[in-house]
Each structure stands twice: as C-alpha cells, then as structure tokens.
C-alpha cells in the first residue's frame, strides 16, 4: 500500500500489503511512517471455522484475511460494534473535522501510549490526507510536544491530554481548539478520534507484537 | 440488579434530552448507537459462560477507578457492588491502592528506550488474591497493565492469564472490555469538558 493510494479502511491491521515476515521477526526500532507488520500472541480463529455470526462481527468480509480481526472475532458482537464505531469516527466526514486531523488525533494518542504499529498506520493516513508528511514525521520523531503549527498543536494537545491518566483535558484545551477554527462537531471528532485510539492501542499492544519492515 | 440506562454515555456525561450536547451527539448517530451497542456486547452479553457478568462488572469497576474518580467509575462500582458485594469491596480497596499516573512503561523498541518511564506496577496482595480468587486476580493485574502501561503488555502478560485458566476467547473479551472502557470513559470526559467550556 503506497501512501499515495486512496485507502478506504481506518483500522489497524488491514494493511494488506504488509511485507512478508522474515524468518526472525524484529521489532521496529522506533516510531515510523513505514509499513510495520503485526503478529498475534494468541491463535486467530481459523478461516475455515468462521460462521455467519463471525462474518457479521467482521463487518467487511475482507477483514477475514487479517490475523488481528480473526483473533478479535473470538468475540464477534463486540468486534462488530467496535468496527462500526471505528468506521464512523474516521470516515464520516459529513461536517466536523477533516479526515487528516482525525488521523492526527489517532497518531498523537498512539504516540503517547507507545503503539508503534497504530502510529505507523495512522501517521501514513494523516500524511496522505493532509499532504504534510514533514509535520507528521516531526510528531513521530520528537514526540507529542513537537511544534506542528497552532491548529495541529491544539488538536495534538487535546488528544494527548485526553489520553493521559488521569485525564488532563480541560476547558482551556477546548477553547484552544475553538480559537484554532474548530466548531463543536469538529471538537467532538477530536475527542472521539483520540478516545477510540485508547481502545485500539490497548488491543494492538497487548494481543501481538509489531514486526519491523522486512 | 437495576437495569442499565438506554444510553450509558448520555447517562454518565449528564446529557439531557434536547440539550446542546444531545444535539451534538445525534449528529453522529452511528457512533452514538454503536458505542451503546459496544457496551451492550460486553455487559449484556449473548453468553457469559466464559466471563460471568459479575466478573465483568468487577473488572470494570477496577479499571475505571484507576483512571478517575468520576461518574464512569461510580457507575461500574455501583453495578459491581450489586452483583457481588463482597468481592466489590475488595476490588474497590485494591483499585484505590493501585491508582497511578499513566501511560508509563518500558519501550520494547530499541530506539525508544530513552523515552521509557517508570511507575507503579501493581500486584494483588495475598489477601486480595485469596478474597477474589486466582482467576479474577489475574484479570485485575492485566487490567492494571492495560490501563496504565499498555506498552508493557506483552506475550508474558497474556501467558499469565492463560496460566490462570483464561481461554483464548475469554482473553479477547477481557481485552476488549478494558480497552472499550478506556474509550467510553474518555468520550464521557470529553463531552463533559465541551459542555463546561460552552457554559463558561
């Protein structure tokens, strides 16, 4: 998958063009916008065992080719609801926040939590949809305090504050987003994009390992 | 047990019908509905034989209390106390001891070692383990890991669950439950903060 290819899928492990895993998988060295693979610690449900209930949970039949989704389909009801939340938060661009900035919120949350895999996927989306790969790379390289310009700084700061435990999100973060030109719906989209990656990061980090590009 | 609200996020964030926050949430109807469906998948499960509802509520009470002493934590604590009052008390005490700022933890990636940070790695005491059982203890320790130092959640952490008799299917449900709560609690916090700013 090239970053120039329009991508119609928001979730983490649907990179179908992940390079073949080499004999000795290595973890990536650091945050990167490059392709990163993912290998599960637990056994995904075998393809041959998937029934209609499982396919309903997968939502898209194509997700059956992903180890990640075939592991999550061991509980199909939560996977199905989660997938529909995911798609709406990231693709429903009827008003509100542009797609690139939803991906920015996802990347910032993943950068703080330390999910190199999620950050790789969503930094590619953020760079692709914004045309600002250098700013995205700065976030990956320097961390969540990197200077990305005021509007992106406001989005990253809110996403990061909401990701911290306990939550550090304040009225000032919301006001800063408003001053940067976001309306209520766009601010709610920042909240949902960051919150969703606090869900996704915890699954990706714990159910498998990132694998460095071959 | 009292019934769950029709929309848990509305309940926890104090969204009144017809309010600005209600209107805002209804502009993303799929997110609103499917967030509730996610709650229902976990807490009104089609089959809870692998992970009983009372255990789900105890784990939820623990995980949300680590993140904040807020409406979400109070909600799960109240439901856990109804479902299993004795163990809920032990879990509430354990959560109070286990609170720590996050996320922290060691990076597995060589180039990120300099960003590794330390914090409280909570383990249940022998008394707590005896009071709630090995299986729930393993889940609480795993929940602490996922909530506060997810970057340290590795294969060994999952092996600790399978060693405590957690099936692969149940590990998936447990992981989704704790991870979903990280989402739900943040959506509630975010919506409340939007409302506070509007009122200021």
Q: Major sheet of chain B, described briefly?
A: none
Number of extended strands of chain B:
0
Beta-strand percent range of chain A? under 5%
Largest interface: A-B, 66 and 68 residues
Number of strands of chain A: 2
Mean of pLDDT of chain B: 97
- Helix fraction of chain B by DSSP (H/I, runs of at least 4): 55-70%
Radius of gyration of chain B: 18 Å
Indicate the percent of residues in helices of chain A. Answer: 40-55%
Give the low-confidence spans of chain B: none
Q: What is the subunit organization of this protein?
A: heterodimer
Shape of chain A: globular
Rg of chain A from C-alpha positions? 17 Å
Order of helices and strands of chain B: HHHHHHHHHH
Count of helix runs of chain B? 10
Structural class of chain A: mainly alpha
Query: From N to C, what is the helix and strand string of chain A?
Result: EHHHHHHHHHE
Strand order of the largest sheet of chain A: 1-2
Number of helices of chain A: 9
At a glance:
The complex is a heterodimer of chains A (214) and B (200). Chain A is mostly helical and 214 residues long.
Describe this protein's structure.
- The complex is a heterodimer of chains A (214) and B (200).
- In chain A, helix 1 runs parallel beside helix 3.
- The two termini of chain A are 15 Å apart.
- By secondary structure, chain A is mainly alpha-helical.
- In chain A, strands 1-2 form a two-stranded antiparallel sheet.
- The N terminus of chain A is likely disordered.
- Chain A has nine helices and two strands; from the N terminus they run βαααααααααβ.
- Helix content of chain B is 66%, strand content 0%.
- Chain B is globular and about 50 Å long.
- Chain B is mainly α.
- The longest helix of chain B has 32 residues.
- Chain B has ten helices and no strands.
